[in-house]
Specification:
This protein is α/β, with parallel strands linked by helices. The chain has 3 domains: 171 residues, FAD/NAD(P)-binding domain (3-Layer(bba) Sandwich), CATH 3.50.50.60; 112 residues, FAD/NAD(P)-binding domain (3-Layer(bba) Sandwich), CATH 3.50.50.60; 107 residues, FAD/NAD-linked reductase, C-terminal dimerisation domain (Enolase-like, domain 1), CATH 3.30.390.30. The protein is 31% helix and 23% strand. The chain is built from 17 helices and 21 strands. The strands form 5 sheets. Strands 1, 2, 3, 4, 5, 6 and 16 form a 7-stranded mixed sheet that branches. A hairpin with a 5-residue loop joins β5 and β6. The protein is globular and about 70 Å long. The N and C termini lie far apart (87 Å). The N terminus is likely disordered.
């Protein structure tokens, strides 16, 4: 017979079913990398996943979205190249595009990812992982069975984010798309309303407009891609309009209603908009609401604050890696954090000294100084480090140097009617770069050179000797440096 406890004595801790050096909750790219680094250092590791091993990036974000976008961007380039224009004039083969997208998600099956986890020697637990106290994790499987795990050294939370939907009248009944539905849809909607002018909104508007939808993009602010230099959003908006999209800024949705004919959106000016589907790309919220954070004195649902080794503030064993710490909501940055965290966990477990200085092996310095990002629109927008406004707000004495990319021979050869712009932000006191932005077709591949310049703090005088090949778009570096030197 079971009796309820009537005193204040803590319940005895349950004996764990299994004990590991490191337990990771979340088997996306970030969690996989934490576990892999732990195993490479000789530590035992377990990883817990409630959905598909491989996470958001593999099935609903990076991979499927870029698979949808690549044919659209290739067609846009071909339409501006004599000799290809006639071939590129017709509509895309939508079924072929969607089938290729499906191949990159492995049909939303994670067998290959599970194989990789197994190859690292990491134990995989399927189910919902929750903290159950210090260094304790419970895993509740689909059948309700609970397994208790214990960590000798660290637990890493790598649970990412989910789409944040505003609380609007009619939202639930409208059954809106989030980024997941937008990247996995099996049919092209006739009319698609996209709410939000950030990366997801701009990319999905580009993809579905290119695949044949009539897109209306609704942006609450003054322009698209607010986190980048203003000219990035301006050029992307111009291109979307030229492709046939209706781009509206300074407008908000106040209510929704779905009936047999589609979705009616009521706007803040009193007008209405009809659509077959509506995508809300209005931000992200951390997947920390049901992780048992209260069991270790933290607030469920919060972003988790960490130091540069990715250890949660106030803890000596709990780590938060990737999107859930809100430092940089990007897969590549989360994987970078995972490498840093994995190295720090191993060093602490093995009583080795940590290198936590700027750019040290155990310090995620790039999160502050050199975060790269590409938006795969037409034109592509690529940036790293600080914008002019951010640099000035931080108190740096800077100079912005701009260049019209269309004047670069490699860009003119890339496609006719090329439009683009480049900017580098120079720290005048140190004569190094604080940031760079490139907007134009084919500029995504320019970004890593800029990232190296910013992260490496390479003096401008030394960059002068990094000679770009002719005729490539990267010759813009020479033009920027010439403009800076006068």
């Amino acid at each position: 017979m079971t009796h309820a406890r009537t005193d204040d004595t803590p319940a005895p801790a349950q004996t764990p079913d299994h004990t590991y050096d490191v337990i990771v909750i979340g088997a996306g790219p970030v969690g996989e990398n934490v576990a892999d680094r732990a195993r490479a250092a000789g530590l035992s590791a377990a990883i817990v996943e409630s959905e598909l091993v491989g996470g958001e990036c593999s099935y609903w974000a990076c991979m499927p979205s870029k698979a949808l976008l690549r044919p659209v961007l290739a067609q846009a380039d071909a339409r501006r190249l004599p000799g290809l224009q006639r071939m590129a004039a017709g509509p895309l083969d939508t079924r072929a595009v969607l089938d290729r997208r499906d191949s990159f998600t492995s049909g939303w099956k994670d067998d290959g990812q599970v194989e990789w986890v197994d190859s690292t020697g990491t134990d995989l637990y399927r189910g919902h992982g929750r903290l159950a106290g210090e260094r304790r994790v419970t895993v509740t499987g689909a059948d309700g069975q609970v397994t208790t795990l214990a960590a000798r050294h660290a637990v890493a939370l790598c649970t990412g984010t989910r789409a944040a939907l505003p609380d609007l009248p009619g939202m639930a009944a409208a059954r809106p798309w989030t980024s997941r539905e937008a990247t996995s849809a099996e049919e092209v909607p006739g009319r698609l309303a996209v709410v939000g002018g950030g990366v997801v909104g701009a990319e999905m508007a580009t993809a579905w407009q290119g695949l044949g939808a009539r897109v209306t993009l609704l942006v609450r602010g003054e322009g698209l891609l607010a986190g980048m230099e203003p000219f990035a959003g301006e050029l992307v908006a111009e291109s979307l309009r030229a492709a046939g999209a209706d781009v509206r800024t300074g407008v908000s949705v106040t209510a929704l209603d779905r009936d047999a004919s589609g979705v009616t959106l009521t706007l803040d000016d009193g007008s209405t908009l009809q659509a077959d589907e509506v995508l809300f790309a209005t931000g992200r919220t951390p997947r920390t609401g049901d992780l048992g954070l209260d069991a270790v004195g933290l607030t469920p649902g919060d972003w988790l604050t960490v130091d540069d080794t990715l250890r949660v503030t106030g803890s000596d064993w709990l780590y938060a890696v990737g999107d859930c710490n809100h430092r940089a909501l990007l897969t590549h940055q989360g994987k970078y954090q995972a490498r840093v965290a994995g190295a720090a966990i191993a060093a602490r477990a093995q009583d080795r000294p940590l290198d936590t200085g700027a750019w040290g092996a155990h310090s995620a310095t790039a999160d502050h100084a050199a975060v790269p990002q590409v938006v795969f629109t037409d034109p592509e927008a690529a940036s790293v480090g600080l914008t002019l406004a951010q640099a000035e707000a931080a108190g740096h004495r800077v100079r912005a140097v701009d260049q019209d990319l269309a004047a670069v021979a490699g860009a003119a050869l890339f496609r006719d009617d090329y439009r683009g712009r480049a900017r580098m932000i120079v720290d005048l006191d140190r004569e190094t770069l604080l940031g760079a932005t490139f907007v134009g077709p084919g500029t995504a591949e320019l970004l890593h050179s800029a990232t190296i310049a910013v992260a490496g703090e390479i003096p401008v005088d030394r960059l002068w000797h990094a000679v770009p090949a002719y005729p490539t778009i990267s010759e813009v570096w020479l033009r920027l440096l010439e403009a800076y030197r006068g």
